[in-house]
Design goal:
The protein is an alpha+beta fold. The chain contains 2 helices and 8 strands; from the N terminus they run H-E-E-E-E-E-E-H-E-E. It has 2 domains: 41 residues, no CATH class; 117 residues. Strand 2 and strand 3 form a beta hairpin. The longest helix has 18 residues. The chain is globular.
């Protein structure tokens, strides 16, 4: 009888743990009962397929993934589809990154750098390298504060670069 009770309690505890904690956007907060231990969940949705920060463009019509290489001070922005998983090549020759550097806003143009698989005259990757302002003020991705603006199919999309660390 104790074995059945212990097994039932374990299943109930596991089911309760799975339902509690941090949910996705739009889900309610559920307090964890005193004494219960819940593993911290990973939040892979905050980073894109290249490890950069995701920026919503439009009503999640597209996403921009902002990545920074601290060794070279190169900023790379990938244009992704609504799922933020797949490349979304666009016909723009450049996109704009507005960053707050040393208290001032700098508008930086990132040039198209097509990836293999991007159609001719389209790019899903844009890069900025050897920029003196970025080299002197940006040490890691957390220093990238501002916005990304891209024209996609004739429509301008802009999104804020956010670094949310709630966990």
């Amino acid at each position: 009888m104790r074995l059945v009770f212990a097994t039932g309690a374990s299943v109930l505890l596991a089911a309760t743990s799975a339902m509690l904690g941090c949910g996705g956007p739009g889900q309610e907060y559920h307090p964890v009962p005193k004494g219960m231990v819940v593993k911290e969940q990973s939040h892979e949705h905050e980073h894109g397929p290249h490890g950069g920060h995701l920026v919503e463009l439009g009503e999640e019509e597209y996403h921009a993934e902002v990545a920074f290489d601290p060794k070279t001070a190169k900023v790379t922005v990938y244009i992704l589809d609504s799922t933020a998983k797949n490349a979304a090549p666009i016909d723009a020759k450049e996109i704009t990154l507005k960053l707050t550097l040393d208290g001032k806003t700098a508008a930086l143009a990132l040039a198209a750098a097509p990836q293999s698989g991007d159609p001719q005259n389209k790019s899903s990757r844009f890069e900025l390298a050897d920029n003196a302002e970025v080299k002197s003020h940006v040490k890691d991705e957390e220093d990238l504060k501002g916005s990304v603006t891209a024209t996609i199919a004739g429509k301008s999309f802009s999104g804020e670069i956010k670094h949310e660390h709630s966990h």
